[in-house]
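Ticket #4471: structure export looks truncated?
Reporter: QA, pipeline team
Priority: medium

Steps to reproduce: submit the single chain below to the structure queue and open the exported record.
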Amino acid sequence: MTAFQNETIAECSAAASLQRGRPERLTILIVNDFAHVNGGAAEVALSSAAGLARRGHKVSLVAAVAPIASDLRDSSVQVVLTDQYDIKSDPRRLRAAIQGIWNHRAETTMDRLLRDCDPRSTIVHVHGWCKALSSSVVRQALRLQFRVVVTLHDYFYACPSGGFFNFPQKKICPLTPLSAACILENCDRDGYVQKLWRVMRQEVQNTVGSFRDIRSFITLSDFSENILRPFFPPNATVYRVPNPINVTRRPPVDVGNNRTFIAAGRISAEKGLTLLAQAAADLNCHLTLIGDGPARQEVSSIYPRTQITGWKSRDEVTLQLGLARALVFPSIWYEAQPLVVGQAAALGIPAIVPDRCAAREWVLDGITGWWFESGNFSDLKDKMARLQDAETARKMGQAAYELYWRDPNTMTKHLETLESCYESILSRDSVEGRSGKAS
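Actual output as written to the record:
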């Protein structure tokens, strides 16, 4: 066996089929900072929790921040809230700083829930922990000898700032996380004191929080896995479970009749939306941004014609995308697997994405859209100009639609793959975390 395992979906299924005497109905604890959708990671965590419950499993969601999503209220998922602020929003900053490093309330909540569970048929699946719950939830699960799997929606497992990104310099950071050079570098968007706090949190996460004792991971793309691979333990097993795309199949959008370039997500420096606004201003084209964020005013000042819709529901985003000539995803930092690019392809909308980002795995360059050199204004503007041609846009949109629907990332496929991974993890001989059990 190699030092680093990588199980395919087929291998997950094969491992599951070999298990003996394990109950079909699993107990699954989904761990996520938020009990409502506030981004792609939360959407996947919550929708998969509801889906797994529909498939007959006993599912609980452990979260810190209300409100509870309506889809969960209407499901059989048990939602257990610690009822706390996310650390960014807590008006009591000292309390937030302590909670972000070690959330004692979340630790005791996990302890109470897990005491009633059987480790032989229980999976603790962590999606988000660093914005409210902290690594205390993982430590408690491993201490009680439960199997833990973490979906790596971002890079907080390795990088204190979560993105290998230098915010003041607005560029990818090449430094090794927690090295002396890393600790000395003022790379945080909120200043050096915040950076030192993040370093402290990362050290706690890796040691007391037992993150280095986790042996099962889910990655979303080749791009993100290759970046995170050097930080996994030698005996880690890595599963690939792509995010589900919740789009109903319908005839492709006739993008040739649309005129608007659309982007979606947080409006912030690392998302490259100021670059997009500059390109749209030069081309004098229609631009719509679905979302909100701290760079909203800067974008508007660069290109006052930009329409900014604010945050929208999943269905509203789909309606907005139906008005697009093309989707532009100009992020200048690493992304794990941006959902909106897949959503656009499912609707027959071509996309323009950076070449140093996981979004490129959704796009066949020159066929279903374009790659542009990350951060390069001229190249982005050129690719947008090419898609101003209606026939080029129609041809690429049709190609994107056909490619996506050959093997769509449906929720059913996502849930079946998750089940296979869970069964594979539970079928191992040794209990994860036994050798690294915390006292």
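Status: closed, not a bug. The export was complete when the record was re-opened. Leaving a note from the reviewer for reference: Confidence is low (pLDDT under 50) at residues 13-23, 429-439.
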